[in-house]
Request: fold
Amino acid sequence: MTYKSFILCTFLAFSISFHEISAVDYFVTNEATNTPGGLRFDKEIGVPYTKQIMGTINDFIWCTVFQQNNPSDQKPLDSVDVYIVEFEGAEGISWGNNKINISSIFLQGYEGDLKWEFTSLMYHEMTHAFQWDGEGHTPSMLVEGIADYTKLKAGYAQEGFAKPGQGDSWDQGYDFTARFLEYCDELVPEFVAILNKLMRFDFDVKYFDYLTGKPVDQLWMEYKAKYEQY
Ligand SMILES: *[C@@H]1O[C@H](CO)[C@@H](O)[C@H](O)[C@H]1NC(C)=O
Ligand SMILES: [Zn+2]
Reply:
C-alpha cells in the first residue's frame, strides 16, 4: 500500500490558491525480520509509525527548517525509501539521493526508548534526502551539521548532544556544527534556511560572510567567546 503525504506549507494563508501541493511517497522495508533487531523494529517502532513520522519530518524540513513553502524551492523527490538492514558501523546511512538504511544491529543493542531514538535518527537522515549540498561542494561536515540542526530544532537532540559553545571548529560536523548554526540563526533570522537555499548549485565559505557580514572564522571566534566556559 502506498502512503502519500500531501504537504502544504501555509505561511501565506492569503495566497493559498497559488500553492502547488507536493506529494512524496514513503516506502519502508524491513529486510531484517529474522534478526533480533528486525523483530525489535516491528515490535517497538513498526512500518506504520515510520511512515507517519516520515510525513511529519518531511513537513518539518520543508516548512520549518528550510522554509521552502514554494515547491520550486524544494529538492524534487518522488519518494523516500527506508530499509531496515543488518549492517555494522553506523546507526543509519543515507545513500542514493533519497534512501536511508537503518542498522538492525543498532536497533537491537540500543538501551532506552528505542522509538524516540529512532525518530531522532530519522530527523537526521531525512534531512540528507531534502537538503541542498552545493552539488557536492558543501563540506560534508556542514552537511552533517545541518542534519543534526534539524534534530535539534525538532526537540530530538539526544542525551550527549553538544551544548552551545562546544567544539573545536565550525566544520567539526554533527552536533557541534548544529549548535554553531543555531548561533548563526540568532544573528540572522532564518540563517539555515537561507544558507540551504544558497547551496542549491554551489558552495562558497563566503556565504557566511554574505549572510552575517563576518567571515566564518570570526563568527566561530565570537561564538566561542560567548560561551567561554567551554
Ligand atoms: C542499503 O540496503 C539496500 C537493501 O538491502 C541495499 O541494496 C543497499 O546496497 C544498501 N546501501 C548501502 C549504502 O549499504
Ligand atoms: Zn548524516
Q: What stands out?
A: Residues 222 and 228 are 10 Å apart (CA to CA).
